[in-house]
Amino acid sequence: MILLNYNLARGGFVKYELRGDTLPVVILTLEQGESIFTETGGMSWMSDGFEMKTNMEGGIFGGIARTLAGESVFMTTYTMKKASGIIAFSSSFPGKIVPIHLEAGESIICQKQSFLCAERSVKLSAHLKKKLGAGLFGGEGFILQKITGPGWAFLEIDGEAVEYQLEPGEKLKVDTGHVAIFEPSVDFNIEMVKGFKNILFGGEGLFLTTLEGPGKVWLQSMPIDNLAARLIPFLPSSDD
After folding, report:
1. Is 181 exposed, middle or buried (0-12, 13-18, 19+ CB in 10 A)?
2. Burial tier of 47 (Cβ tally within 10 Å: 0-12, 13-18, 19+)
3. In the predicted model, what is the mean pLDDT of the chain?
4. Which CATH architecture has domain 2-233?
5. What is the rounded radius of gyration, in angstroms, for the C-alpha atoms of the chain?
6. Cis peptide before 214 (omega within 30 of 0)
7. If DSSP codes are grouped into helix, strand and coil, which group holds residue 148?
8. 40, HSE (Cβ side, Cα atoms, 13 Å)
9. Alpha helix (H) ranges present in the chain?
10. What is the spatial order of strands in the sheet that 151-158 belongs to?
11. Which residues on adjacent β-strands are paired with residue 189?
C-alpha cells in the first residue's frame, strides 16, 4: 500500500509504502535533496544515488543519552543526490511500523528502541521520567525516547498497535511493558495492585502502569520481553 501524506511543516508530500504484517518494512521515495536519518545499521536497502553520512549527533553527551534510550551512539543520514530514489527500513522484531507526523515543536514519548527512521527535520532525544515510582516500576526504566517535529517519524511497536484518545481525567490501567507511545500531555504513573491474592496469583506483578488523559496513547499487544519469556521454556539448555 503506497501512501501519500501531506507534510504541513515542509509544504510537500512524503511518499512511503508499508509492506508486510508480522515483520514489516517501510519503503520511502525521496526526491533530490531530501534526507532521512536512522541509527547505525538501520537501513535495509536503497537505490543508487544516496549520500551516506554518519556522525555522533549532539556530541558525546548526545550519543550517551541515545544509548541510554536504547539507540546507537552514532546516527546515519541518507540524502538523495539524484532526481529520486527509494530507501527501505525494516522492523527488527515482530510487530508494526507506525508513521507519525509532528508539527513544529510537537513531541511524542515512546519506549526504548522504538525509533526506526525520520525526516532530517525531526529531533531524537532522551526523555527522563520525572516520577521515581514510574521510573523504578513502570517497565521501561527512567529513560525513554522523545521525538520532536517538524516532520515524519516511523516507529516500531511490538505486536499489534492499538490507539486510544484519552479525555481529560480519563485513565487506562496497563500491564507493564504494553505502553509503546504517548503524547507528553498524558500523565504516566504506576499504582500497586490491590489485594494479597491478586498480587500472589493474579499474574500481573505488584504494579500496573496508569495513563491519564488528555492525550493519545499507543499500546502494543506483545512486548518483546514477554515474547522472549514465553520462548525460553522451548529453547534447548546447556544440559540437553
Report:
1. buried
2. middle
3. 80
4. 4-Layer Sandwich (3.60)
5. 19
6. yes
7. strand
8. 12
9. 59-68, 132-137, 196-201, 224-231
10. 50-55, 75-80, 35-39, 115-119, 151-158, 95-102
11. 210
Place of cell 558525546: 60
With a CB cutoff of 8 Å and minimum separation 6, the contacts of 120 are: 34, 35, 36, 37, 77, 79, 151
Of 58-72, 113-127, 161-175, give the range with the top mean pLDDT: 161-175
Region of 142 on the Ramachandran plot (φ > 0 left; ψ -120 to 50 alpha; else beta): alpha
Classify residue 53 by burial, with Cβ atoms within 10 Å: 0-12, 13-18, 19+.
exposed
The per-residue pLDDT for 203 is 47
Nearest 10 degrees: CA dihedral of 35, 39, 43, 46?
20
Of the listed ranges 42-56, 61-75, 105-119, the least confidently predicted one is 61-75
- Determine contact, residues 98/161, Cβ cutoff 8 Å: yes
Task: Write the CA distances from 208 to 2, 124, 127, 200, integer angstroms.
Answer: 38, 28, 21, 14
**Distance of alpha carbon 24 from the chain centroid:** 14
Length of the chain: 240
Section 110-119 average pLDDT: 90
Domain definitions of the chain by residue range = 2-233
